[in-house]
Amino acid sequence: MNLSWRRIVILLTAILFIGGVIGFQLLSKQKTDSPRKPPGTSSMLSVRTLEVHNGPANMPIPLQGRLAAYDRVDLFAEVNGLANQGEHPLKEGIHFQKGEVLLQLDDREARLALQGQRASLLTALAQILPDIKIEFPDRFATWQSYIEQLDPEKKISDLPQAGNNREKLFLASRGIQTQYYSIRSAEERLSKYRLVAPFDGVLTVVDVQRGTLVRPGQRIGQFLRLGSYELESSVSISDLGFLRVGQKVTLGSEDNGKSYTGLVRRIGDQVEASTQMVPIYIEVNGQGLKEGMFLSGEISGGISENVASLSKDLVVNGREIWQIQDSSLIKVAVDVVRNGRTNAIVRGLKEGALIVLDRKPGMIEGQRVNWITE
After folding, report:
1. Which of 16, 28, 129, 274 is the most buried (most CB within 10 A)?
2. How do strand 213-214 and strand 248-252 relate by DSSP bridges?
3. Residue 164 counted as domain residue
4. How many domains does the chain have?
5. Which domain covers residue 155, as residue numbers?
6. Is the dihedral of CA 122, 123, 129, 131 positive or negative?
7. pTM score
8. CA–CA distance from 30 to each of 26, 27, 214 (Å)?
9. pLDDT, tens digit (0-9, with 9 covering 90-100), for 245-272
């Protein structure tokens, strides 16, 4: 009994195995291969194109550089004294109007010494006034009036002019002119205890603090004029013929998105040995400008014939442009005559050629495309 069942199981297993093999072969014959794409073909792209029209074009000269203040002064002390605060705190970034006191040094000792010199002159004049009345009676009223208005606490006024050589020698023998000019020198020195703003501007560097003992020759800080800046750039020697002093320059900042108009103020005479470029200096004014800001722009250059002006984004690898020929993409080598801020002047494109305005991923030469001409 057991032997019969074993034979039946073995027979059924063999039948199932043979049936599976036959079924697999039948299914394999019924399966069809997926159609293959012909080699060299890809999906069709849709792109925008532009028809080339060659002709004359202005070749702007690119410029770039950083702004520097047109008026900048280093402030130095000419006298010694303790630093006191002026009309505003002596701090970086503080604005001053022209004539406002930047720094006041302690001048009490110098002021008292000057008042003593004026008092000495007053004494000397009072002593010679009787002699003047005898020797120069017609000049007595003039000198008496001068003595009456002479005040040791006020700035000295000009001495009366001598009426003749005899009076001149008389005054010289009494040392009147010597005392007078010593007072004028002391008054001039006293004015240097007050450091005033030479123009409307701002402190950018401060080297002393309130209460510091300042010595002659010591730097106080740095002061610059606001709103007036200068940009230093450079151009090639071949472009010098297109530049002139007073020429307008279009400049812009990528940081604030604003545009500015500058004027060429100076053109250098020396060629930089390493770059073979010539420096030029452009005056720039406007809101939002700061020292150290980077600006770029262009200035009108010469005219080139038989060229096309295109967006810089269309130039691939600095010397190639995508073009459509026989409904397929190709790369055409061009000669980039000049690169501006946004456009490039190129030579080498055929008249009426269709150049591709779109840069899409996966673009390859020989790829067939659909296009719309703008």
Report:
1. 129
2. unpaired
3. yes
4. 3
5. 109-191
6. negative
7. 0.59
8. 7, 5, 105
9. 988 998 988 888 788 989 999 998 888 8
